[in-house]
Design a protein that fits this description.
The protein is of the alpha+beta class. The chain has 4 helices and 6 strands, in the order αββββαββαα. The radius of gyration is 22 Å and the shape is elongated.
Length: about 190
């Protein structure tokens, strides 16, 4: 049974590791795979009456077909601004505006582009793994300091570090599985 101080360090570390996995999932959702998902427009900001507003607050975004996104603005007066924001969003998309609805056909990914996206996914995964390993290092340092300052038995230090390592392995494995799935999504034609 671990002392409360060490249990707190371990639960804080686990919370931080979960956050790294959530961040990785969010970043993966922004990397375009073979099919259309509204999440790829998540970072698009539109100049709406002088403030940068997220696109999903100004319009309904849907994917009616595997290679088509539609954007239906709640306020038709911002159609031009939305179209401009999508074109300048760095995603290589060319929206078509018919006055009521903006259609965004997603071009087929070239082999070269797919490889770039896989590389980007691997970078995101590596950053998440680094984050998890940093949490492990900080938690182990805190465990050592706590054992020393509170004169706890040395066994509790080893037990605490063992639990931290188990959590590290568990969350890095989650990142690996997410990366594997994202690679498969990107490379599937």
């Amino acid at each position: 049974m671990l002392p409360d101080e060490l249990s707190t360090i371990i639960s804080d570390a686990e919370r931080s590791m979960k956050e790294a996995v959530q961040f990785c999932k969010k970043e993966f959702s922004l990397i375009r795979a073979g099919k259309a998902t509204p999440a790829i427009l998540e970072n698009i900001r539109v100049d709406y009456y002088g403030s940068q507003t997220p696109l999903n607050q100004l319009a309904n975004i849907s994917a009616p077909e595997p290679r088509l996104l539609t954007v239906e603005p709640y306020d038709k007066s911002v159609m031009q601004d939305i179209e401009k924001a999508i074109m300048s969003g760095g995603l290589g998309l060319n929206p078509n505006n018919d006055g009521n609805l903006i259609r965004i056909p997603l071009p087929m990914l070239s082999e070269e582009r797919r490889k770039e996206l896989v590389k980007k996914a691997k970078e995101v995964a590596e950053n998440a793994r680094i984050s998890i390993r940093n949490v492990r290092r900080d938690a182990n340092d805190n465990i050592k300091k706590t054992v020393k300052s509170d004169s706890l038995p040395e066994d509790s230090q080893y037990e605490g570090e063992g639990k931290i390592q188990e959590l590290t392995d568990k969350y890095i494995d989650m990142i690996e599985k997410l990366l594997e799935q994202k690679e498969k999504d990107i490379l599937t034609v």
